[in-house]
Amino acid sequence: MKNLCFFGAWDPAYPRNRILREGARRAGFGVLETRVKSTRAFRRWPALVAEFARSGRAADVMFVPEFRHKDVPLAAMLRGRRPLVFDPLVSRWDTLVGDWKIHGQGSGQARWNRMLDRWSMGLADRVLCDTWAHGELFESLGVPRAKLRRVLVGAEDAFFEVGPPPADGPLRILYVGGFLPLHGTRTMVEAAAILESRGDALPPWVLQMVGRGIEFEDMKALAAERKLANVEFPGMLPYEDAPRVFEQATSRSAHSARERRPRAWCRTSSTRDSRPAAPW
Predict the structure, then answer these.
(1) Which residue, of 52, 217, 257, 264, has the greatest Cβ tally within 10 A?
(2) pLDDT digit string, tens, across residues 6-60
(3) Residue 254: beta bridge partners?
(4) What strand order describes the sheet that includes 263-266?
(5) Burial profile 117-128: b = 16 or more Cβ within 10 angstroms, e = fewer
């Protein structure tokens, strides 16, 4: 059995790496975890070196999970002859400059994050993408197509095992996510305003927007400005409670806190691949 070492200051509760770790186990890999808390590099890297010596030396493959661009150079130094796989999930430059607009297009931070994208992805033998649209973005950052492998975001078993929606009550439309700009929450609220304008011509319905994030307060304010009675903002939801909330919904769109592409379900059809593949 070959061992994968999940390396870096990754968050073990984040759905992307939870799904990949479980998929690796089902595909017959051993999973080693070299993980420390996210701190500044001058503290984090020595801690990772020590932790790798303790927990990761039996690895056959080095795997750096989502968002850990800054840990890829250290993984490359420690890899030896092992293959190195990086699952960036996002481009730091595209997220911080294009989506969140924290830094200006021509700023030093924009140049630094674009360089970090190119450096981290360039060091890896394989780079994962969740969609080929993201893959094209990574190609524009210098990743050869031959190095890319697509691994869909997917969902854990509990999300596919929810029962049918309630037979009575309103049609429930559910958004669960981090209210990031590219999640399209403004479009959802605007669409809700159009639906409410149709009044009794539609069956009873409610849009629940669960979570918090960058645009949360703005969307609450927009819904209040439009006097939308059918839009609810219940706030944060513990991850383990999400399947229960999904069970009450007829249509759903779900995003992780930093995810750029939506995962959407309609209750009339949902499928999953029962044989996870190892892309490396």
Answers:
(1) 52
(2) 999 999 999 999 999 999 999 999 999 999 999 999 999 999 999 999 999 999 9
(3) 176, 263
(4) 231-235, 205-210, 171-176, 251-254, 263-266
(5) bbbbbbbbebbb
Q: How many CB atoms lie within 10 A of CB 155?
A: 18
State the Cα angle at 116 between 110 and 121, rounded to 5°: 135
pLDDT at res. 161 = 86
For the chain, the DSSP string reads --EEEEEES--TTSHHHHHHHHHHHHTT-EEEEEE-----HHHHHHHHHHHHHHHTTT-SEEEE-TT-GGGHHHHHHH-TTS-EEE---S-HHIIIIIIS--S-TTSHHHHHHHHHHHHHHHH-SEEEESSHHHHHHHHHTT--GGGEEE------HHHHS--PPPSSS-EEEEEES---GGGTHHHHHHHHHHHHHTGGGS--EEEEEE---TTHHHHHHHHHHTT-SSEEEEE---GGGHHHHHHT-SEEEE--TT-SS-EEEETTB----SS-----
Domains of the chain (ranges, CATH numbers): 3-150 (3.40.50.2000), 157-266 (3.40.50.2000)
Q: Answer with the residue of higher pLDDT: 162 or 209.
A: 209
Q: How many CB atoms are located within 10 Å of the residue 59 CB?
A: 24
What radius of gyration, in Å, describes the C-alpha atoms of the chain? Answer: 21
Contact 210, 254 (CB under 8 A): no
Whose tokens are 């890899």? That residue is 79
The token duo for 158 is 């509990």
CA distance 21 to 12: 10
